[in-house]
Amino acid sequence: MSQLAPPVHARGITTLTLDSPANRNALSAGLVAELTAALDHCAADARVRAVVLTHTGNTFCAGADLRAPADPHDFVALMRRVVALPKPVVARVDGHVRAGGFGLLGACDIAAAGPGATFALTESRLGLAPAVISMPLLPRIDPRAAARYYLTGERFDAAEAARIGLVTLAAEDVDAALEPVLDGLRRASPQGLAASKALVTATVLQSFDQHAEDLVARSARLFASAEAREGMTAFLERRDPAWVL
């Protein structure tokens, strides 16, 4: 069963919708493959001026699908594909963002969050770290905010996400807020968009090229550790892990 809704194209904008609410749009091998293929199609389609990435259900993306996980290298390649796509990718988020969902969101060029959006980097509470998702995140967000939320795992809202640079704007009506953004993208030339995007993503792509292999390996070591096993078991059993004071 497809986990990505059929693409919708309207006036130069193609909307790709994560459509697996039953598992909170988790990053399964299937979803990563579908989304990568859809982005490749958008890159090759001259009608597409920009891509909107959104979701069904109350979660944008909850991170890895533990039942059918994507290969970490494939997820890294997907994030890099979003960053390197010669057409802008706009995230429309009005649900929860967790774990690998931050990687997708951070890879997008512009992001709008509605009142239903919440954010939490809870990896440290599980004995893990936001490793591979750091590549699109850390070049974009406020360093002090990154330190706080990486370390504490606190939940924050759309307004705070906008303040720290995680999203471009927060609004009660996210679709109305995106109208002038999408209108601006429709008015830009394809060459102008591609060249301008290359300027603002150069640092992010450099992060991928320099750190991807190290961060994938670091993430694997953490997942294999006894502390991470305890953290994830405690999470599933709805109890505090052994280290909580």
Structural class: alpha/beta
The 3D shape can be described as: globular
Percent helix, as a range, is: 40-55%
In the CATH hierarchy, the architecture is Alpha-Beta Complex
| CATH class descriptor | Alpha Beta
- For the secondary structure, the number of strands is 10
Q: State the end-to-end distance.
A: 44 Å
- So how many helices? 9
Unreliable residue stretches: none
Strand-residue proportion: 15-25%
CATH level-3 fold name: 2-enoyl-CoA Hydratase, Chain A, domain 1
- Average pLDDT, all residues: 96
Round the Cα radius of gyration to an integer and report it: 17 Å
Main-sheet strand order equals: 1-2-3-5-7-10
What count of domains describes the coordinates?
A: 1
Series of secondary-structure elements, N-terminal to C-terminal: EEHEEHEEHEEHHEHEHHH
> CATH-wise, what's the superfamily?
2-enoyl-CoA Hydratase, Chain A, domain 1
Main sheet, how many strands, which sense, barrel? 6 strands, mixed
